[in-house]
Amino acid sequence: MNTIITHILTRRSVRSFTEEQIRDEDLDLILQAATLAPNGMNQEPWHFTAIQDPKTLRKLEEKVDGTADSFFYHAPTLILVSIEIGNAYEKEDTACAMTNMMQAAHALGLGSVWCNRINHDPKLGVQLSSFGVPEGYKVTGTLAVGYPKGAYPSPRIPKQGTITYIRS
Prior knowledge:
The chain has helices at residues 3-10, 24-35, 54-65, 90-107; strands at 46-51, 77-84, 111-115, 137-146. With 168 residues, it is an alpha+beta fold. It has a four-stranded antiparallel beta sheet. The two termini are 28 Å apart.
């Protein structure tokens, strides 16, 4: 089977990470995959902020949760996807970029999970300039990335009855 198809069929969300930081080369490839994602009218309305500093990650946790609880599962790298405020394709563009990053991470032997706490709070998503989000942008997706702790999650069996074919 084609390597790309294999990666698509075997990628799973990882919610437990080791403390080991990912390699710079791997982060660069993940971010490159994001910037090459499909996007509405090729506007490229996004900005990607990769946070790897533990102190900054703790400050962001406190801002998001108000506690020391980790909304991103203690991953060593957190990527904030932000979009120009008012962009008509923010959900679509974010989903494409996030999918590319998750697939790239998996292909590199890394785990990842899309974390939703920031983008579910419209006020919070625009208050993160001190965390590298440019003014005039809002966070629409957050990706935790790292080395999986323990076994990689097993493939799941898809729900039946979700595909319909209409053929001549």
